[in-house]
Amino acid sequence: MTISVSLRSIVGSFCLGVCAAALVVAPVGSDSGQAADTKTSTRKSKAFTTGSSDVLIGYVDEQIRQGWTDNEIQPSGVATDEEWIRRLYLDVVGHVPPVDVVEKFLADKDSAKRTKLIDQLLDDPSYVRNWTTIWSNLAVGRGNARRGIRVFYSRKGLEKFFRESFAKNRPWNEVVFDLVSGDGHFERNGAVNYLLAQLQMPDEAVQATAKTTRLFMGIQVQCTQCHNHPFNDWKQDQFWSFNSFFRQMRKDVTRKYDKQRGRMVDDYLTLVRQDFSGPVYYEERSGVMRVAYPKYFTKKVDPGAEVDRRSELAKLMTAGDQPWIAKAMVNRMWGHFFGYGFTKPVDDMGPHNPASHPELLDRLAGEFVKSGYDVKQLIRWIANSEAYNLTSRYGKKNEIDNPSAGEVPLFSHLYVKQMQAEQLFDSLIVATEAHKSGRLNWDQAEQKRQQWMRQFVVAFNTDENDESTTFNGTIPQALMMMNGDLIQDAVSIEKGSFLRRVLEENGPDSKKIRRLYFSALSRAPTRKEIGAATKMIRARQADKIEAYQDLYWALLNSNEFIFIH
């Protein structure tokens, strides 16, 4: 189906217009119902937090409320069940909720149903898949692990490591320890792929140094390899002291003959320990050569060849009551759920970049350690908080809470986030029930998902092999959403498809329209939307099926579907 310009404008007039108008970001000065006073908001949200007896959630709420008071703002009201369940599903399991789940949740009168659903999703297989994807992307990016005859790492091996870690809810300190200290075959020990991916060039482990401190400790030190940091206390010698921990590793490549290519190609990789002792040498801007020995802040490590430096680094990184890895994980996880962490960016913490709520960050980090680095428990604390239960709409009473304009986040309402490409792909599959129709099993969906992602990845030739995606409202994304194979499959009326089943159901057009809205947007259509959609469909009796396809296409292309709110 290709939608003409005239038809698209008709559909857009009631959906892309009406739906966008109903979207989460209410204009400044909007109806006072979009922002409630603190007392009202607190009273309403209590009904959604009584399912958890954890006193830490109360502390989180107190700290966030204090920020509202100090800045003389009042929070938005509590999110509707429709808004909240969609948000939670996308944040925890990476896709929109199925239609039947939404309807069952809305009918549930249990005041603790939100807390219960959080616990339920943490045990859902999609939780493991979502967080495996998130951390695989953070660790090695979305690019290809193999290019021609060369293999750089095994994404499959790394995903297996993360999948098993999240499935078992392994303590985060153990996960980090394995990623930093591991060695061996890249599929037998999937953790080694993190460091293998950082060894794509002979850079004296510079990339591994910068990536490790940034990803697991929330500290950006990459620029100090050449000079002292202009804004914080990091010095050039500290970078090279950290770097010396990674000098005892190298990549071994085992090759094989490829008959099709008629040449030798990479078969598999192994991360092995190499002999290295003493200091590393670096050059100051003045040209003076200096030495740096392995040192973790103030803790020195024996520079002898017999000492496993990466194991010693992993021990130091994970030791103590409130190590950097705990703060970094709390900050990153808070940023995942709210759109902004306590610092901006989440991986640049320190005196030069003070946290918006320092006491809360410290307390959560300390409790995270006490919990045994329990990632699921950390998610419970965040998702059960009063702030996470608020709507993303805002008004005059909290319009200054706008981090996108450079303001410090106060979390008086949820900040709108765009779906990641993986979330959008999975949401289209779930919304249209393609995985149930027999047309697309999960293995095929995963293969198609990787193909989908490769269209948006842009690599940069930087020291850290940085990459980005064009999945941010650009023309390629818009064209993919409007005319790509995935969206065409989504609005298919082939046997077994969701849209066909809806059309074959008995009942009036209004009932079918309602089903499409719940599928795409996790909510019922408004009276205005029902009226406009019904009018459009009745006006096109000669091509009624196409009219429904156009309606569903417009819903899946609307801002309300693409954004997390």
Would you write up a description of this structure?
Helix content is 48%, strand content 9%. It has 565 residues and is mainly alpha-helical. It folds into three domains: 5-23 and 420-564, no CATH class; 32-123 and 326-415, no CATH class; 139-317, no CATH class. The protein has a three-stranded antiparallel β-sheet. Strands 1-2 form a two-stranded antiparallel ribbon. Strands 6-7 form a two-stranded antiparallel sheet. Mean pLDDT is 85; it is low at 1-47.
Considering the chains and any ligands shown, give keywords for the structure.
mainly alpha; 3-stranded antiparallel β-sheet; 26 helices; globular; disordered N terminus
